[in-house]
Amino acid sequence: MKKILLLLFIPFFTYSQDSLNMSLLGSYSYPTTQANDIWGWVDSIGNEYAIVGLRNGVSVVDVTIPSSPIEKFFISDINSVWRDLKTWNNYAYVTTEADAGLLIIDLNDMTGNSYWHVKDFYSSNNDTLHFEAAHDLFIDENGIIYIFGASNPPGFSSSMLTELFF
Q1: Is residue 19 part of a domain?
Q2: What is the pLDDT of residues 70-92, one digit of tens each?
Q3: What dihedral do alpha carbons 56, 29, 65, 25 form, nearest 10°?
Q4: 0.90 cut: is pTM over it?
Q5: Radius of gyration of the CA atoms of the chain, in A
Q6: How many structural domains comprise the chain?
Q7: Run of H or E including 85
């Protein structure tokens, strides 16, 4: 019976490996680290970028010419197997589960020198919210960032950080 079930699933396994009309146009290699997430961004003149979460930081790669990707900059960060990346206007926002807070990258500066790690946030009623690690983030159509799975170190309020306004 087990052999019959396996034979029934073989077509599904082979179909799942199909490229579905996609072609590899180019690639960029990270020989000393591993990637864990990717997000795209297009600047005001149409250049396309891949923002890549790596175990040891964040890389921004110009993919305007897909066959020749070029890393524009790399920001070293705390080692983590998890990063989540999103963009809003000309900024990239990066969370990690490695106690680094929220990394905000100014994408107007393609040198990679304009970025901030932020751990304290102020709500509309002047409450201070603090988080150091988060699993995920989402930015809605109004630029409100929602942080999911946030955690605080011992001694900080356990208030859950739920939204940031940018």
Answers
A1: no
A2: 999 999 999 999 999 999 999 99
A3: -130
A4: no
A5: 20
A6: 1
A7: strand 83-88
What are the residues whose beta carbons fall under 8 Å from the beta carbon of 119, sequence distance 6 or more? Answer: 101, 102, 130, 131, 132
8 within a domain of the structure (yes/no): no
Token code pair at residue 120:
């304290």
Confidence of residue 162 (pLDDT cuts 50, 70, 90): very low
Is the model's pLDDT at 7 over the cut of 60?
Answer: no
- Helical ranges in the chain per DSSP H: 2-16
Res 163: pLDDT: 46
Per-residue confidence (pLDDT) for residue 18, from 0 to 100: 66
Q: Does any domain span residue 128?
A: yes
Element (H, E) at 164: strand 164-165
Instruction: Write the Ramachandran bin of 14: left for phi over 0, alpha for psi from -120 to 50, otherwise beta.
Output: alpha
Provide the domain limits for residue 83: 33-165
**Structure tokens of 69?**
């990707």
Residue 95 lies in a domain: yes
